[in-house]
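Supplementary Note 2. Why include the ligand at all?

Several targets in our set were suspected to adopt different conformations when bound, so apo predictions alone were not considered sufficient. For every target with a known small-molecule partner we therefore ran a joint prediction. The input for adenosine-5'-triphosphate is given below.
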Amino acid sequence: MENLLIVDDNEDVLTQLKWGLAGDDYRLHLATRVDQALEIFRKVSPGVVTLDLGLPPHVDSSEEGFRGLSEMLKINPSAKVIVVTGNDERENALQAIKLGAFDFFRKPIDLDELRVIIRRAFHLHAIERENTVQQGAVEEEVRDHCGIVGACPAIRGVLNLIGKVAASDVPILVSGESGTGKELVARAIHSRSLRKKGPMVCINCGAIPENLIESELFGHEKGAFTGAVSTVQGKVEYASGGTLFLDEIGELPVNLQVKLLRFLQEMVIQRVGGRKDIAVNVRIVAATNIDIAAAIAAGTFREDLYYRIGVVNIHLPPLREREGDVRLLSEYFLNRIAADLGKNVTGFAPDAMASLETYAWPGNIRELENRLRRAVLLTDSTLVTSEALGFGGDGGAGGQDGFSLGDKTLKEARAMVEKKMIAAALAKHEGNIVKASEALGISRPTMYDLLKKHGIEN
Ligand SMILES: Nc1ncnc2c1ncn2[C@@H]1O[C@H](COP(=O)(O)OP(=O)(O)OP(=O)(O)O)[C@@H](O)[C@H]1O
Ligand SMILES: [Mg+2]
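The joint prediction is reproduced in token form.
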């Protein structure tokens, strides 16, 4: 039940309101003086207050009422204070609104009217409260999850898993398409681990020429090969005490997979050209955008290595499968980018949101971020449009993958696709109706019906 505080020095008014509002399901608190009102205000923190302005000791001015109003809003700025004034106190009422009152109301009191104002005040109060709670929750999540934004069930699962495994030293394999946030997850794991004060060393197994990978990973002794003029530590050694992030592990040549496996089993390395075993203490996080199971089947990835690095597998779904996250991420990036670039871009035009939500995002979150950066940079308006995002001005994300929303209904879109498919099948099979209907998986009579429906001449 909501707390409603009524402040009036006139006992008759209090009685009238007490009985008049008795049926409205508020917990009523009554006060006749400001100090008494403030005491109650502090104790029960009412969402709504009705405050008479002419209160003792200054019954003929609004001074005491204004004091009460200011004090209350100092204690709780979100409280809704409705001031109640005498008949001719319009100036005071306006002054009260300036001071932060929610609304004003003139005596003599019309209960029905007052009731509506009170209800409206409680309503607004509830909405604001909910917003603050949500806002707080969102901010907290972004902070807690090391910048991983997302609310779809799959991402919640990922965050949950990160929380469970980060503190232990188990090796983790992060998989997902390009741009889905694998490195971000690796960083989140590192920063939530007991090794967070240690280094996080990244190595991209796909970006280093094959003949250099071994020395890059394990280092080399002076004179190990031509050009090895001094002894150099490898990245694995550098990562000691911290986390070693092996990006694109699927690209690691098979002979190095063997060496990596040996290292993982024994946690010692030998520099290239060296004989000495050097113990290293690292936690491995690997990432891949290829399907490791398929690579194992194809013989390009060692199964035993997979079992070592993939003790825990964190899979990041592509953006197009993350229900609702495009909107969340778009808003998150828009705010960040606009602040970065110092531009007053505050939201999305309706066509832009439609495009964002229907586009297939082959480049996932990286592509989303890049498109938004470009749009914010180039736009002259406060809203990002579909066109600014590079989706063309038709309101759809068409062209790229055939998904164009525009202002079509689902029925119209279906008909359009149907017509295109039939025309394409006929073209492919040189007008042969039997073959075209087979290719489309429909019967011949159905095909004839559709040809007629779409006015296609064969
Ligand atoms: N859930 C997320 N919330 C906020 N930002 C994200 C999220 N996922 C990814 N990003 C951002 O998207 C960009 C791409 O992410 P990241 O580099 O981690 O992807 P990746 O999977 O490693 O890509 P690749 O396979 O191409 O290496 C980064 O700028 C990252 O900060
Ligand atoms: Mg990456």
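Residues 410-453 form a domain with the Arc Repressor Mutant, subunit A fold (CATH 1.10.10). The longest helix spans residues 111-144. Comparable summaries for the other entries are listed in the accompanying table.
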